[in-house]
Amino acid sequence: MPPPPPPSQGAMATGAANHPLPCSVGRPKGTNQRRRPASLSVRASSDANTVTLLDYGAGNVRSVRNAIRHLGFNIRDVRSPEDILAADRLVFPGVGAFGSAMDVLNRTGMADALREYIRRDRPFLGICLGLQLLFDSSEENGPVSGLGVIPGVVRRFDSSEGLIVPHIGWNALQITKDTQLLQGADGHHVYFVHSYHALPSDANRDWISSTCNYGESFISSISMGNIEAVQFHPEKSGATGLSIFEKFLSPNSSGAKAPAHRKASKLAKRVIACLDVRSNDNGDLVVTKGDQYDVRDHSSSKEVRNLGKPVELASQYYIDGADEVSFLNITGFRAFPLGDLPMLEVLRCASEKVFVPLTVGGGIRDFTDGSGRYYSSLEVASEYFRSGADKISIGSDAVFAAEAYLQTGVKTGKSSLEQISRVYGNQAVVVSIDPRRVYVKSPDEVQFRTVKVSSKGPLGEEYAWYQCTVVSGGRDSRPIGAYELAKAVEELGAGEILLNCIDCDGQGGGFDIDLIKMVSDAVTIPVIASSGAGSVEHFSEVFEKTNASAALAAGIFHRKEVPILAVKEHLVDSGVEVRMQ
């Protein structure tokens, strides 16, 4: 399936104009106007303040736009091959699959224009897939020929020995060449999200400016003359990433000073702030927090708990050092046309202020709005990506898809999970699993994978299985276990698992270590531990006792019971690698 059309052609890309929120951070300097939609990019009066952006519409490029505007620059979009050749500075934030990208570039004539632009040694910055496409070919759904600028083949990380793939998170750079772009980046964590990588060789050695280690050493950046490209995402790498961007955009400036930090050495464990967003009884969007998924106050008022405004809290968590911010939409805005969904505005505004990854979950499924207009789950996901999401989280739909797959053994390709991962890549798809603990006296009592529990059940039971649930007018239990669901969704294309536990939610007694260890040992994709954090010690415990790649919390951050910085300082003291600002 080809990638969806860019924002300028999409039928649903105009919702921001109808329901604007007062976003201000990230606009070009000296203007107070509401930011134009991505399809109407500003044309600067001076080329010195203009960056040409090659966006072929296959994912979240809004974050790159916001980073560029945040640094005071305007954007000219590529509409034709001639626009590439006329550019003074070109940014190519490649996203999605290698083959789909090359198909678009070849079909539009932009591949030849890119080769010529690079041959002329004009200022060029490729990001993620924008680096990989410079190589001879890729094994992703291939082999597929690339632009052929740099010798080498792009290969998938080898997960056969237990390496978690995709490579998601904050990893360290090993600088191999003195370049202006990476000055000050040595020893900092930067954000990666990819399953394929280019390997160093004698043939491409002169191009390499840094490497990164994940299972093996791979190329994390290249530099030759005015040609620069990075495998990581500077637009999602916080202050370090913005500094790298500024060095490309303003080559005569020193860039923003990198913040003080502890020297990065390897892939860091991530600390994620989660915001449950819903409308309260007055119709206002608020951040709330449940107690075993009940978000209403236990006082006589029974009102929805209001813990703050979504964009303001997300911005503060970014400042506080959160490695990612996750929004969970727990209100079904089914009466709205897709382009007007309130969560889209939350994403648009948050992405102007938050330069770490954003995930959004809730409502990623087929639906028909109040006017009778039908939207596929792929259309819904596409609009979330265009609005600033880096990853989308799927819940109930993934459960139903997994059940069907386990019953038939057939991948139909029609589920939301399969469609979205095929178009945007599995690294863009998180599956949220919401199980309840069910105690049993013996593993032989059930057909699902059980675990010997750390604390016995109410009747002295020594074992439990974890029954998955879905939202269907309530929270219904399904005949599938968390272990079986995790294995199935990995097969169907999930790139990450958000592992909740209803029994632990809002209790503050710690993560369910038994559950998290069972699932993180069973899959080769990253697992995010969720539900139950109540102290800094709970974070070190989950990282020391399980293979979780990240830990997520909500209420303790919202209520300021445990600051994010305190969590990270405790993890450092415990010998756990984390990103420090």
UniProtKB/TrEMBL annotation:
Reaction(s) catalyzed by this protein?
5-[(5-phospho-1-deoxy-D-ribulos-1-ylimino)methylamino]-1-(5-phospho-beta-D-ribosyl)imidazole-4-carboxamide + L-glutamine = D-erythro-1-(imidazol-4-yl)glycerol 3-phosphate + 5-amino-1-(5-phospho-beta-D-ribosyl)imidazole-4-carboxamide + L-glutamate + H(+); L-glutamine + H2O = L-glutamate + NH4(+)
MF (Gene Ontology):
glutaminase activity; imidazoleglycerol-phosphate synthase activity; lyase activity
The domain of life for this entry's organism is: Eukaryota
* Glutamine amidotransferase domain span: 53-248
Q: Where does substrate bind?
A: G363, N500
Q: In which pathway does it act?
A: Amino-acid biosynthesis; L-histidine biosynthesis; L-histidine from 5-phospho-alpha-D-ribose 1-diphosphate: step 5/9
Positions of the UniProt region annotated as PRFAR binding: 395-396, 432-434, 505-506, 531-532, 554-555
Any one annotated GO CC term? chloroplast
What are the EC numbers?
3.5.1.2
The primary site where this protein sits is plastid
Q: Where is this region: Disordered?
A: 1-43
What does the UniProt entry say about where the protein is found? Plastid, Chloroplast
Q: Which CDD domains match?
A: GATase1_IGP_Synthase, HisF
- For binding L-glutamine, which residues are annotated in this chain's numbering? C128
- Which residues are responsible for catalysis? C128 (for gatase activity), H233 (for gatase activity), E235 (for gatase activity), D276, D434
The UniProt keyword set, sorted, is: Amino-acid biosynthesis, Chloroplast, Glutamine amidotransferase, Histidine biosynthesis, Hydrolase, Lyase, Multifunctional enzyme, Plastid
Q: Say yes or no: keyword Repeat present.
A: no
**Keyword flag Amino-acid biosynthesis:** yes
What the protein does? IGPS catalyzes the conversion of PRFAR and glutamine to IGP, AICAR and glutamate. The glutaminase domain produces the ammonia necessary for the cyclase domain to produce IGP and AICAR from PRFAR. The ammonia is channeled to the active site of the cyclase domain.
**Which PANTHER family does the UniProt entry name for this protein?**
IMIDAZOLE GLYCEROL PHOSPHATE SYNTHASE HISHF (PTHR21235:SF2), IMIDAZOLE GLYCEROL PHOSPHATE SYNTHASE SUBUNIT HISF/H IGP SYNTHASE SUBUNIT HISF/H (PTHR21235)
What family does the database annotate? Belongs to the HisA/HisF family. In the C-terminal section; belongs to the HisA/HisF family.
Which named protein is this? Answer: Imidazole glycerol phosphate synthase hisHF
Record the organism: Aegilops tauschii subsp. strangulata
